[in-house]
Specification:
6 helices, elongated
Amino acid sequence: MLSEKLHTALNEQMNFEFYSAHAYMAMAAYCTDQDYDGFANFFLVQAEEERFHAMKFYNFLSDMGYRATIHGFDSPENHFDSILHAFKTTMSHEKEVTRRIYNLSDIALDEREHATMAFLKWFIDEQVEEESTFDTLIRKIERIENDSNAIFMLDAELANRSFTPDTEAK
């Protein structure tokens, strides 16, 4: 049985995951406007992932016998100075997601709520992967700086990214 504190925190994280999808949509819109279709695709796929994550929280709450409550949220950042700025904003956002997941894990651990601890383990592993992905892309973008050919090549590479929920769930 979930405490009110844990139920509320899980629900807030579900809503934050939906917010994350909106934030990535805003980044995709920036990239599309700058004619970086591959980078836009990367962020659109990221938005799909975040909605998938939100639905994992939604389903977990439901499976545990609790109602998910959907909240509104502030508008995400929509203005970026560069691709690098968008990715650094993303890294900062993912670090906040990690902090929030760790906080949820701490609550579940304190309350000895083992089902929630097992559920959150997947998200802890996912955040390691997310931060690593963004760190790698930031380092690549910093290395290539203003080399338009290299940006074009990375843009083309990111155009191939896709989302498959079956592989994401593992």
